[in-house]
Design goal:
Elements lengths: L16 E12 L12 E11 L4 H4 L8 H14 L5 H15 L4 E9 L7 E9 L3 H7 L1
Antiparallel strand pairs: 1-2, 2-3, 3-4
Helix pairs in contact: 2-3
Pathway: Cofactor biosynthesis; tetrahydrofolate biosynthesis; 2-amino-4-hydroxy-6-hydroxymethyl-7,8-dihydropteridine diphosphate from 7,8-dihydroneopterin triphosphate: step 3/4
EC number: 4.1.2.25
GO molecular function, one term: dihydroneopterin aldolase activity
Amino acid sequence: MTVSPSALPRSVPVGNDGISVRGLRVEALIGIYEHERLGPQPLQVDLELELLHSRCCTSDQIEDAVDYGAVVATVRRLALLNRRLLLEAFAQDVADNLLHDFPLHTVAVSVCKPGIFDAADCVGVSIRRRRRDSTTAATRA
C-alpha cells in the first residue's frame, strides 16, 4: 500500500542539509608563471554547500531552495573575471561570494588544475569556510 507523501510522518533533521556540485569545468586566467597567464586555463571545481535545514525539503517550493544554476553561474562568472595568481585565492573568492549571495551556512570549495604534472591527473586545493553570522543563513533559507 502506498501512502501519500502528505500522510507520512515528518522526520526530524539530523545535522544540516547539503548540496553538491562536482566536476564543474571552468576556465580562468590563473597562475604564478608568465606562461600560465598567456591565456585561460582549465580548472575543475567541486562544491559542498551546507544549509541550516532547508525549508524546501518539506515545502517542495523552489522559492525555498538554493538555485543550483545560480550557484554554477556565480562560479563561472568568478572564473571568467579572475585575476588571482593562486588557486587558494580563487577558492577563497568563490567561498566568499557563495556565502554572500546564497543562504548557506558553510561551503567547501576544491579547485584543481589538470595537466600540471605528468604523473598526476590534477593538482589542487580545498578550503572550507563558514558564514560569520550563522543566524542570517537560517533566516534566509
